Amino acid sequence: MTNHSASWRMPTPKQMDRMEAEAVRKRASGMTGAESTDMPPEYWDAVLNDPGADARPAGGVPLQQRRLSEIPRHVLRVSCRRCDRVVEIQTADAIRLHGPHAVWKDVGMRLLDDGCRQRTGSREDDGCWPSF
């Protein structure tokens, strides 16, 4: 069996037994996956104790999932990934038209609702692909 990641051939029973024996030997000797690499233990301590590893995005909730009243930006922009059309609306206008509790993702989808400039011929696929 080759060590290529895209190898399509299943290992033979003999090879599977050999791999299992190797895994059992490593477990019995107390070696974990991290210790079996060439990295020193100090590296793994630094990685696991990094305070930024558990950090969430600055606002907690992604922008497209926020309500309009929670967005601090003056202008909101949504674009289509297929036809590159860009639609902008001021936050105050969006709140006036859709209400302060409307979710920005839903409002952005409504702004792009009139159809994509790049037609596929299929009714299901002829919408814009929004990017917030």
Characterization of this structure:
This protein is of the alpha+beta class. The chain folds into two domains: 13-54, no CATH class; 63-131, no CATH class. Helices cover 30% and strands 10% of the residues. The protein has four helices and three strands; from the N terminus they run ααββααβ. The chain has helices at residues 13-28, 41-48, 91-98, 104-111; strands at 75-80, 86-90, 130-131. A three-stranded antiparallel beta sheet has the order 2-1-3. The radius of gyration is 26 Å and the shape is elongated. The two termini are 46 Å apart.
Which shape, going by the Cα principal axes?
A: elongated
Structural class, from secondary structure content? alpha+beta
Give the oligomeric state. Answer: single chain
Secondary-structure element series: HHEEHHE
N-end to C-end Cα span: 46 Å
Number of helices: 4
Please compute the radius of gyration using only Cα atoms: 26 Å
Average pLDDT rating? 78
Low-confidence stretches: none
Please give the domain count.
2
What portion of residues belong to β-strands?
Answer: 5-15%
Q: Strand order across the biggest sheet?
A: 2-1-3
Report the biggest beta sheet as strand number plus sense, adding barrel if it closes.
3 strands, antiparallel
Portion of residues in helices? 25-40%
Question: How many beta-strand segments?
Answer: 3
